[in-house]
Design brief:
The chain is mainly α. The chain contains 5 helices and no strands.
Length: 106
């Protein structure tokens, strides 16, 4: 790691800023929404096809330096809201249920 990059990382850590981790290969937010709705009791579980989307949802975590449940839930909510179907009024209740049940856990 270059010295400038290392110093910048230390400065950000010292300032207590939270940085969302960007995953190299993301999963479609609509797939994640559908699968999480299924395990939250609002649809079919999706079976093996939901393994990767559910794992991706749970991998979205904010650490600053300890697990930050509020920031994690906010990040997960923003991610799920990027699915156009999640923004439909009737689906917002499902999104709220997903976040209430799974949004704050590591």
């Amino acid at each position: 790691m270059k010295l400038n990059s290392l110093l910048a990382a230390i400065a950000i850590s010292a300032a207590g800023l939270t940085i969302d981790t960007v995953h190299a290969q993301g999963v479609d937010p609509c797939s994640v929404y559908t699968c999480m709705a299924g395990i939250s009791g609002s649809g079919a579980t999706g079976g093996p096809a939901c393994t990767a989307p559910i794992a991706y949802f749970h991998s979205m975590q904010v650490w600053s330096p300890h697990f930050n449940s509020g920031a994690t839930a906010a990040w997960r909510r923003r991610y799920l809201m990027s699915c156009p179907g999640a923004q439909v009024a009737s689906n917002l209740a499902i999104l709220n249920a997903i976040i209430a049940e799974w949004g704050y856990s590591p």
